[in-house]
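Risk register update: the risk of archive-format incompatibility is retired. Evidence:
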Amino acid sequence: MSLDNIRIVMVRPRGSGNIGSVARAMKNTGLRELAVAGKLRTQSFWARAMAVHGRDILRNTLSYQTLREAVAECTLVVGTTCRQGLYRAHSRSPREVAAEIVAAAATGKVALIFGPEDHGLSNEDLKHCQLLINIPADPQYQSLNVAQAAMICLYEIYLASLGEPMKESLPLARAEDVERLYDRMRSSLLKIGFLDPQNPEHMLFAFRRILGRTRLEDRDVRILTGLFRQIEWYADRGWKVIQEKERQGIKIR
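Archived output:
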């Protein structure tokens, strides 16, 4: 199965040599699309030297200012992490996730994200991800070089692509459409006092985790967006309209 629908995204990479090394790993495993969110340094000596025969991937690297832009058209976004914590507790191994990535790539664009070499993806970065990968390693030293992590993940994806593909349902919603849903959700839930205005993202992470497991389709996003739009309307002034209709015995819907 072709892996052309899988985009590898490097977020704020610090070393150009690692960009080249990831490009080489992609070449080894049949992937072609590399993107960088942040400063693009793909034509330095070290990037080209480490890429070896993956220099064509370097030349065609996509450049974005932000991670949200880099994954906007993707229907599945998968992050990588070696750290633990509340927002990372549902991570799985590359082998467990690989078949799902390949299946999703059959109907839409998939992004696999690797964070900066020094500390990896931040919690802010993770909010864009529906799935998280954690590579099992010795507890005494779990941190991997980004190129090593990429090679392990891409190898598992490549193997999964050789087997019988999982069947994905309808095409999934684009990441940007899902992000707009969360923007609407944040606004409406703040209006009704459900979210803590000092830290609304904490509870929103829980919603992202719940909805991320469902693999939202376009119709799902439209329905939920309509729901939260209605909540916001009701909180603003809609309750007065409803109250007056009830008083007059007018059918609300």
